[in-house]
Amino acid sequence: MGKPTDLVQGTLDLLILKTLALQPMHGWGIAQRIRQVSNEVLQVNQGALYPALYRLEQQGWIQSKWGESENNRRAKYYSLTRDGGKYLRQQEAQWNRLSGAIDLVLETA
Amino acid sequence: MRLFHKLRHRLRSLLQKEQADGELSDEFQFHLQCQINELIAEGVSPDEARYAALRSIGGLEQFKQECRDMRSVSFIEHIQQDLRFGFRMLARSPGFSLLAILCLTVGIGANAAVFSWIEGTLFRPYPRVAHQERLLVLAGTARGTPGYDEVSWPDFLDFQKSCTLAEAVVAEKIVGTTLSIGDRAERTTGSIVSANYFDAMGVRPVLGRGFTPDEDSGRNAHPVVVISYQMWQDRFRGDPAIIGKTQMMNGLPHTIVGVTPDGFYGTFVGYPFQFWVPASMQEKFDSTGYKLEDRDARWIEGFVRLKPGVTAAQAQAEIAGVASRLELAYPETNRGRGIKLLPLWQSPFNGAEILLPTLGIALAVVVFVLLIACANVGNLMLVRSFARRHEMTIRLAIGADRRRLLKQLLTEGLILSTFAAVGGLLVANWCRNALVRIIPPRGVQMRMAGDIDWRVLALSAAVCLISTLLFGLVPAIQSSKVDLAGALKSESGGVVSGRHGSRIRSTLVLLQVALSFILLVAAGLLIQSLQRIRTASPGFSTQGVVLTAVNLFAAGYDAPRARNFQDQLMDRVQSLSGVESAAYGRITPFSYRTYSSAPIEVDGYEAPPDQEPTVEYNEVSPAYFETLRIPFVSGRDFSRADDEAAPPVAIVNETMVAKYWRGENPIGKRLKVKDRWMQVVGVVKTAKYANLLEPEKPFFYVPLRQNPSTQVGLFVRTPQGPETMAPQLAHEVHALDPDLAPYEVITMREQIDRTTSSQHIAVTLLTGFGGLALLLAGIGLYGVMSYAVSQSTRELGLRMALGAAPSHLLRLVMSRGVTLTAGGIAVGASAALLLTRLLGYLLYKVSPRDPLSFALAFAVMIVVAMAASLVPAWRATKTDPVRALRSE
Which residue of B47, B97, B677, B767 pairs with B90 in a disulfide if CB–CB is 3.0 to 4.6 A? Predict the structure, then answer.
């Protein structure tokens, strides 16, 4: 993966949903988490993150609530809705199929 | 669940827009702060950390907008913005806006008017009648004879009994009567109806009742009448105690039992009905005798109301079955007789027949006008989009997306066309009664009103949207071609490629010219046709004959008294000074009333076994042929000696001789009419009987004396006009019976003109709309030429500097305009050659490719083109070469 912002839209959605599956989180936290888990490979720019969050909320996969952050600031926390959970499982399965297929092609070709 | 989330979310974003925007800001600030904190923790100075964080975001506003877009309500916000901006832009150039709205108002208004006419006179022609979509016209057919016929009462009763798919089968027959007795006889139109009429039509009287089932039967047993709201107001001044009062009608006091609601005009296109009487009173209102027990007397113009869910085809199949059963059961009267159920707009029994072809053509014409108007507005928008190219370029440069620009342009177009649609509907509303004003007056109140209901509104809205797309897309295509870099480089000119723009504009003008040309040709053809009709000979003389009628039937005269009156009146009229001859005829040629018709038999003529030859005839007095100048071929005229005591005689026309006697001289031969044998005593030339366009048909005449009637027309051959004859005739009638008055006195020519309503309507509409189209096309051409001149100032200046004379420049510009027009004419002419055939029967003895009409249209178009390019050309000659060359 070249520039981090080149994340394909669907992939970013998947990453966000997966991250939120652990616990509700604010935007900054999501970006940090993705970065840490991917060993600093995936850098999510807020220019891509927030539109994606708004879109996911618009579609009803996630919901948001204002709360207090670790350092006592007002922050907007996102959490997965029940439909979002189902959607995530679907997307995960699809991703696994897809990446498996790509691996297969790369190995045999 | 998810739906609920989405809905709540969307509503919130829409209704609490300020708050949502604030939250976006807060969230963003929080993120920024986290980022800064992290950078500081890594050892970057606070200022630098802030700068780096901000930089990593990129365009702040773009980012925010992107987030807003994601909330997807931005769609509605955009519309609000576009509307607000659109209004501002249009208000800034009121001249442009007004002209565009005016053009569109003409286009949309013309369409809405024609829609409303079609709706009000063809599709839903009977105001206040419920569920007209389930109403069909009941028309009789006769094998071997084209066209439609009425239905007899016994047949009607059988249909009423046997049609299970019909909710109701209704009988109706238009009748006229004379109401005011005094100096003036006032003709009033009404109808004889079956007792189920008001229930079947869903019309509940505002006072009193409709008819009861027993009022259908019993010869003249139920002298009751339901009157119209208008008659109640006008004649009885809205008397609240009107029910139970009596009104003299046709010599018999009728009890008023009901008043129909306001706005109900009966079920007829053309005349508003004022009264309704039950079928049992048929004999009292139909001067041709008692018909309720005669299966051979066809007089009913009925309706069938289908049960919900039944299709017209199913009902047709059922009623055709009943008709063929009747044919088997009553071969004497019903041989070859069938039934056809027609939609209301195809009714052969009323004004729909006149309006159908005319309004069809009107529809095509207004679509043309709309296209021309759209082309004009498209051109105007183009000019403006050129003026606004700088605005568009800047908006594109700061990141507006092209789709958004397109939406903006279409929104502006929509604002224009919405204004125009409102204006257009006002125009249409104002034109609702225009049809009646176009056609020649008939001496009795007429009604052919348009109706603006939700269907007309919806259709007009659709027209408005389609036209917005048509004219709005032109500049949109144009501006989407904007070349950013090029546009920013040069401040003025050259953004919208001049060449490309002018090509679109020229194409639009070409289209306008072509469409106008077609309309001009059609108008020319129809005008010629109307002129030919006006001068055509109907087979009798139309000059020097005036006609009127005395309705003895409505005055309650019986046959002997009527005969006496008619004889005395004839003697008095013939002795008036200036009267050359006078005669009676039961039916006036070219009137709405129908001739008698009867099955005939001729010795030596074998009709096909399943057909019954039926021929129309008229009952006339001696001197009828002399008065109308219908020439005799052989034989003699009727005389007063041909009376009830003498053997029955008849005079036949040449077409009848050719068909039934194979051209042999029929004088002295026998002709059986119904059950009576008559001797043919004369042969006259074939004339036209009901209208000028009818084919030559067999026809015969019988003496009035042997076939008396209490309702006859009076024909007077005199060099005097109707104005001088009217008081004299009234005086003679008064002298015989002070309670009687003649109808209006008109010339035979006027009588014939009244049958050319459809041609009148077509000519008026086409010349009117053709003129509008021409005006619009002229404006379009003018616009294109002035624009071309203003754009080529440099070229013109250069030519001038090189020594071109002003006259040369004038010719140069003019020739451009004329070339453009010639192109349009070429396109229009080829289309017109194909299209004018559609005028069909409206053209009387004019070829659809009549060269004169084409030549005239060509001349008019060229003159308009010259006029439209003259001003721009003149302006071109005023170009100041020094200024023109220095300006760049």
Answer: B97
Contact B66 A28 (CB under 8 A): no
* Three-class SS state of B243: coil
What residues of B are in the A interface, CB distance below 8 Å?
Answer: 1-3, 5-6, 9-10, 23-24, 26-28, 30-31, 33-35, 37, 56-58, 63, 66-67, 69-72
pLDDT digits 0-9 by tens, B143-164: 877 788 899 999 999 999 999 9
Alpha-carbon distance values, B19 to A42, B26, B382, B443 (Å): 32, 10, 40, 72
Residues B253 and B183 in one domain: yes
Q: Write down the ipTM of this complex.
A: 0.80
Query: In this predicted model, what pLDDT tens digit does every residue of B373-406 receive, in sequence order?
Result: 998 888 888 877 777 777 777 777 776 777 777 7
Determine, for residues B2 and A26 on separate chains, whether the beta-carbon distance falls below 8 Å: no
Spatial CA neighbour of B148 closest among B350, B360, B355: B350
Topology classification of domain A4-108: Arc Repressor Mutant, subunit A (1.10.10)
Q: Are residues B62 and B100 in the same domain?
A: no
- C-alpha to C-alpha distance for B298 and B140, rounded to whole angstroms: 9
Nearest CA in chain A to B35: A28
The last residue of one of the domains, among B755, B779, B810, is: B755
Q: What pLDDT, on the 0 to 100 scale, is given for residue B485?
A: 57
B340 in a structural domain: no
Give me the residue from A45, A76, A83 closest to B27, CB to CB. Answer: A76
pLDDT of residue B10: 66
Task: Assess if residue B93 is contained within a domain.
Answer: yes
Q: How far apart are CA B70 and CA B62, in angstroms?
A: 12
The pLDDT of residue A4 is above 60: no
The answer to whether the Cβ–Cβ distance between A74 and B30 falls below 8 Å is yes
Residues above pLDDT 90, as percent of chain A? 6
Low-confidence winner among A84-88, B209-213, B351-355 (lowest mean pLDDT): B351-355
Average pLDDT (B698-727) is 92
Q: What is the pLDDT of residues B199-235, one digit of tens each?
A: 999 999 999 999 999 999 999 999 999 999 999 998 8
Query: Are residue B491 and residue B613 in the same domain, yes or no?
Result: no
Distance, CA of B387 to CA of B212 (rounded, Å): 74
Cα–Cα distance for residue pair B655/B658, rounded to 1 Å: 5
What 3-state DSSP class applies to B207? strand
Interface test with A, best of B70, B73, B75 (most A CBs within 10 A): B70
CB contact under 8 A, A51 and B5: no
Which residue in the block uniquely carries the two structure tokens 């008397």?
B239
In a domain, B43, yes or no: yes
Percent of chain B at pLDDT > 70 equals 92
Q: Residue A70: closest CA among chain B residues belongs to which residue?
A: B34
Distance CA B650, CA B632 (A): 13
The reply to whether B55 and B113 lie within a common domain is: no
Residues 6+ apart with CB under 8 A from B278: B192, B193, B194, B195, B211, B215, B216, B222, B224
Residue among A25, A26, A28, A78 with most chain B CBs within 10 A, to mutate: A28
Q: How many domains does chain B have?
A: 4
Could you tell me the residue range of the domain that residue B15 belongs to? 2-72
Strand A74-80 with A25-26, pairing: antiparallel
For residue B293, give the 3-state DSSP assignment. Answer: coil
The answer to the question of residue B788 being in a domain is no
Please report the pLDDT score of residue B718 as a whole number: 94
Strand partners, B614: B599
Out of B33, B48, B72, pick the residue that ends a domain. B72
B66 and A82 within 8 Å at the Cβ level: the answer is no
Q: Are residues B167 and B291 in the same domain?
A: yes
| Res B885 pLDDT > 80 | no
Q: What are B173-196's pLDDT values in tens digits? A: 998 887 764 455 677 889 999 999
